[in-house]
Amino acid sequence: MPIDFPALLKTVKDRFGDDVLGSAEFRGQHTLRIKHTANLKVLKFLRDDPAAKFEMLTDVTCVDSLRLPSDMTKDYPERFAVVYQLTSLEHGSRLRVKAYVPEEPCEIDSAAGLWKAANWGEREAFDMFGVIFRGHPDLKRILMPDNYEGHPLRKDYPLKGRGERDNFPKYQEIPRN
Amino acid sequence: MSTAVEDIKKIAPNATKQVFKTMQMNIGPQHPATHGTLRLKCEVDGEIVVKVEPEIGFLHTGFEKLGEYRNYNQFVVISDRMNYLSPLNNNIGFAIACEELFNVTVPTRGQYIRVIMAELSRIADHVVSVGLQGMDLGAFSVMLWTFIEREKLYDIFESVTGARLTTSWTRVGGVFRDVPADFPELVNGFLAKFPAVVDEIEYMLNKNKIFMDRTIGVGAVSKEDAISFGVTGPLLRASGVAYDIRKAKPYLCYNELNFDVPTRIEGDVYARYQVRLAEMRESIKIVRQALEKLPGGGANTEKLPVNSVNHKVALPTKDMVYHDMESLIHHFKITMPGHGLIPPKGEVYSSTETPNGELGFYLVSDGTGLPYRVRIRPPSYYNYATFPQQAAGRLISDAVACMASINVIAGELDR
Q1: Is B288 exposed, middle or buried (0-12, 13-18, 19+ CB in 10 A)?
Q2: ipTM, 2 decimals?
Q3: Nearest residue in chain A measured CA to CA from B59
């Protein structure tokens, strides 16, 4: 049975009060907007509540709002939005939760304790956007090399890079003897 | 279930501590068992993997960054390069995400053609995956048979899309051209012989003692773990969760077709192999039904539309462009940068069931011709995250079996 989203979102708003910034609907998909300080308790509620039961974290990613047009930035109180795509296998419904993370300090609590999927998902978000997930078991780069500087999917990072290709450390033959 | 360490302790109870001293070992990124570009940092104890840490990113190509600089039709080309065993599924998945964003619907004939191609592509992926799984465990002939079948499928893809691998077949609101008139004969010709091949593979491997010994009980993932890890596709269904997006949230015309979702409860490598075999049979069923119901048949004598008739999004046919002023304008508007194909502001997450699992696209549009953010949710990425857990405490050769059964595709894993 599909989730009754208006009722669920109202429950969440009543329960968490000011931590919930609002909700949105576009093309039949629901988004819950929350403060980054409250992400764990809201996510835990959504995972465990029988009316929601989002037992699967499908994806964790991030959006950088730096170059958004002015009429869309009102939805982004902070620069980054960490986006959780939740799936309820029981109800066959999906919900998107957006937690807004400021540029400085760019930190949010890790959801790796709630879902194991968050481990790699958050590592990628950290790698690409530089969002630090507090309490993550193994927060380090996953796709980019360990010695890479910068976070490529940030909007102020140029498409062609910052000269990493030219300054790539060359292979040096180890002299024998 | 006993681990390999316990097994050895049973055989050699007096083994000294020195035997169990661990050492670091690298597998890959050029090792054949890692299928290309995966590196495993293993801590091994003799031949037993104590801890394994996969290192990925060797094929990172920046698809998500590139997507922010390509318009919606140009990104189809990039989506080919993601899962290179089944590029058509990626094309279709991306097109469906865009159509949800643009709010256009594809006519019935277009939907049926997409379903047929998606299922043929699923067969091509599964058959190679099963073959490679056999090869990694020493059953080389299965791999050779399966590659023959894939060649036949690639011939069909070539006649439909013009390319074997880099298909780039879909456009927002449709596909770039209708199927050739002899399409039903081509597909039926393949389907007439293919079920026998599945039976042959089954005959070769199902009761094969070596194959069974090396797969049963290996790399088992429990139902709870699979859900928590976000595992999808054949791996999730092998762990006992009957979750298939084609059933749970039907897209295209899957709700008009009759098929089952095969599941197993063991969650081990053998169960995944069985699920893949069963899914190939289901795909054959789907293709047969879809061919029968295909509106207009192969030749499409009634000239039913394949692409959306909303010409603000989908290109009008060449004939219309030559003879109709308005269509000429639509054509110009869509193809010129900065003019057409502009979605409303908003964001969608749309997912389809690809051979490896849930392929999701999270598109954020800022109301210009280029997407503001393209997030690809690759199935391999989240499936592969379970690998350390599967391989820990088992033999190195079991790790190879686990990796083959996950069917991790580096192009999609690293993007």
Answers
A1: middle
A2: 0.91
A3: A143
